[in-house]
């Protein structure tokens, strides 16, 4: 099979065919492609850069915006209606690691948008790779004044502001009220109680396990370690410190490996088809989720309306604490010529209640994402239809949980590689930690960044 | 199965059983995911998770299809159209260029011919992923990023096709025919278009089919080159939906049904053209 259909070398053929007068026939493939690239040159238009006005004085400024967020198009439309001076041109792009790679390529090729969304965990990697504009001047005050302290450490690195937070994602415990009631088990407040509840429920009904935790999304392990007091990354002088395989994280990993080994927790991976099956058929009693998880239940498990309760994440020592699971921020990729207009759009989209109204009203599945900005959060809470949770307000629970996020966590410059390595480790969480540790050390050294200790 | 002159029936029966069993395994391995896809596409969301992977649920295919083609103002239909455009235009032109090049390598003598052919062969060995970033930077410099061209032009160049076309040309286009046509006064272009190309038709179809699959599945090219979802081919569009399932769980059944729809054109292309393809595959073999 042919493996590639691409432009090759630019070696040129000087055709000297046997019969005279036939030279124009003998073009090599590369020569043809060179011609066609030249045609593309003339015929193509760089859509991402077209329409960019030279300055704010003449007509509206156009900024380009890439995101994989749901409702981003409608949010941009709402912004455009109320901001005649700035027009946002939105493109839906894929999320995840491939989307991140795409954005990095776009910066290299000077085709990057003026605004994009990015997972918190990817920020240090992009900032240290020189792919982000420093927003200290344009959005630094906004971040300092309008956002809670726990997320500030995620968007500030080396004393500079690289992104503006959109949401906070505290881990919470979603539990089946009916199952806990049926077996007379109290909702666990500590991980010890959680383990005991797991055993009790599984003994009473062997088909029910406490939850599924068989790998598939290392971000959960990160959040649980965060809660336990781990700090996977830190800096020491101008060097990076990596402590993924530290005692606090180990404790978490060994705890979950233990639950899975004794069979009271399921080894089914997160996010798969198997998970949906176990959850919708009542084979798991709890789900470790984040603030945004609540909204997905309405679409994923419509039959279980009224059966889910939400509680704070169980703790290690009785003191309320939680970590974060995912979360989105707004960035300005390196090379943007419209950083001021970009900053205005970002301010609007992360703090104006109007922005969240536009987003939420456009969604087909309800979003329970918890905005980091308090005013916006209040508006989002008003718009969420909480009837699925019968009497419980997911925003109130999540808001209270957000206040207990352990401060001081920072992500590191190799988290994409760490995530890939940990994902490959499967359900073994201890292995995920050691693989993650070595992947981070290797990536940091390979990229010529300083590694402490 | 071939008949052999080996004595005794038992060993032959045994080997035949073994071969058939192996083939059956391979067939099952290939067909099971497809069977899953077909079945899953007919289920509604509830049955998808409530029933086993190979047990049919309530028949919901038409509703699913309706959902796929109406979601987000029918963007899926646009993706499908884009894919067809990229693939048909891309692979027709690419096959034509490859056949012309292969023919030229066969029919003409020119300086450094074998060395050039060596360059083409070396091109076959370079994996597509290695070239993705350089191609992207070239397209950026040319201002072609996020246009149809950025996706189409790289697809036109196919060193493996050139190699294949040369083999075909050696098998199908005898020098005597070329000489006779020249004596009759045919120009070189006419010679190619009216004499050689018809003889190379099975080769053309073979290369066309190879390229068709490759362009249809050229996911990374689209991922790097295109930013506007209205230009996306169906593979990238589906991937984007699949990545968004975390946020928008309503997309889950759409991804499954959409995947099924997106393989249909490939199946049709192969069924329609396999007659040519089979004759093409063996054509150069004896030479």
UniProtKB/TrEMBL annotation, chain A:
InterPro entries per the UniProt record, alphabetical: Bact_solute-bd_prot1, SBP
Disordered as annotated region, ranges: 1-24
Family annotation (SUPFAM superfamilies): Periplasmic binding protein-like II
Signal peptide: none
Keywords linked to the UniProt accession: Cell membrane, Lipoprotein, Membrane, Palmitate, Signal
Positions with biased composition (Low complexity): 1-14
Keyword Signal attached: yes
Annotated Gene3D superfamilies: Periplasmic binding protein-like II
One Pfam family recorded for the sequence: SBP_bac_1
Record-linked PANTHER family: ARABINOSE-BINDING PROTEIN-RELATED (PTHR43649), POLYGALACTURONAN_RHAMNOGALACTURONAN-BINDING PROTEIN YTCQ (PTHR43649:SF33)
Protein name: Sugar ABC transporter substrate-binding protein
Source organism per UniProt: Streptomyces cirratus
Automatic annotation (TrEMBL), chain B:
Pfam families cross-referenced by the UniProt entry: BPD_transp_1 (PF00528)
Membrane topology qualifier: Multi-pass membrane protein
Protein name: Sugar ABC transporter permease
ABC transmembrane type-1 domain segment(s): 80-273
The UniProt record lists the keyword Mitochondrion: no
UniProt keyword annotation of Cell membrane present: yes
Family stated for the protein in its record: Belongs to the binding-protein-dependent transport system permease family.
Organism: Streptomyces cirratus
InterPro entries to which the protein is assigned, alphabetical: MetI-like (IPR000515), MetI-like_sf (IPR035906)
Subcellular localization: Cell membrane
